[in-house]
Amino acid sequence: MESDEELMQAVARGDERALADLVERYAARIHAFLTRVVGDRDDADDLLQDTWMRVARGARGFDATRRVRPWLYGIATNLARDLHRRRAVRVRALQEGSLEASQPQPSQRPAERIDMRARLERLPERLREVLVMRYFDGLDEAEMADALGIPRGTVKSRLHGALRALRENWETT
Amino acid sequence: MSCDTVQERLDECALARALDPSDVAMGELRSHLEACEACGAHLAFLRALRAEFALEQPAPVRASVVATAQQRAARALRAREAPRGFGRELIAALAVAVLALPLVVAQAYFVVESGAWLLASWVPEPILIALGVSYLGSFALGVGALYGSIPLVVAWRRRALTEWT
To answer: What is the spatial distance between Cα B37 and Cα B41, in angstroms, rounded to a whole number?
Structure first.
């Protein structure tokens, strides 16, 4: 089986088959990551599409010395952050009363809540990303640092920060 | 070993899914954990968290979503592979702008002329000339850019359609 990096080199040469293989290989993982980070399956569906569009567009410029997995997670994380920013703008607009509150925000949907997701959603975005990458997706600190463009020490402190925040939350619920 | 160190090690074990008594790192911490209530409580929290995390897995991605992602990504790849064309289109844009120039200059000239005729008795001639030249220049640039953007917009639209449909 070809490695991710070999597939990516083929994609960079315009090989659609290699791209399809890469999507097949990572779609489930990236989708699960996005679902956990953005908290909504439909949004995760959309972001998954966008992630692969960006991969296709950026394939030619992909640095062959990098690993593919952190690059993919980095793209997905940036898209998730963009979505959070759009949501925040919308929430502000709702709070200012310029729009009717027609749809509850993800953190306000207790009926369909499951504890784990609720706990994750209460974490600040930056802490949630690293926790999901590490715990659920098994990325190591170096990969996360590469994906997020931050030093390894920052990854480490965010991971401990996430667990600390979860514990505080745990003790108050 | 301090409690902070032990709890950090426990966090690392939890993140690596290695919290069971049989795991090597846990063996190293055993004596501290047996004696320390606070670290024991932290371990209990981490195990409870693990149990809770294990309960829920996101619904698997639908096959149709994966198929759509593959198709759209392939289109984006094809669009990227298509002749870039922007160099050619830039030349076309410049050509259109240059061809439009005489028309623009003529239009602007008549505007300046009529303006000069109206203002000649109030405004000194050097100022009138400076105003005329700057008006002519900015008008020519603006309209030239407007006409010149047409081939670029057409090219962008063609590329977007290739990618999205």
So the answer is: 6
Can you tell me which residue has the tokens 């050509």? B95
| Contacts with B72 from chain A: Cβ below 8 Å | 49, 52-53
Residue of A nearest to B68 (CA): A49
Which tokens sit at B53? 């995390």
Token duo for residue A46: 């959309």
Gap between the Cα atoms of A49 and A56, Å rounded: 11
**Domain that residue A66 falls in:** 4-172
| pTM exceeding the 0.95 threshold for the entire prediction | no
- Asked if A70 and A141 touch (Cβ cutoff 8 Å), the reply is no
Instruction: Report whether A76 contacts A33 (CB < 8 A).
Output: yes
- Domain ranges (residues) in chain B: 3-55, 83-164
A150-164 residue pLDDT tens: 999 999 999 999 999
- Please give the helix or strand (H or E) that residue A165 lies within, else none: helix A152-172
- The ipTM value here is 0.81
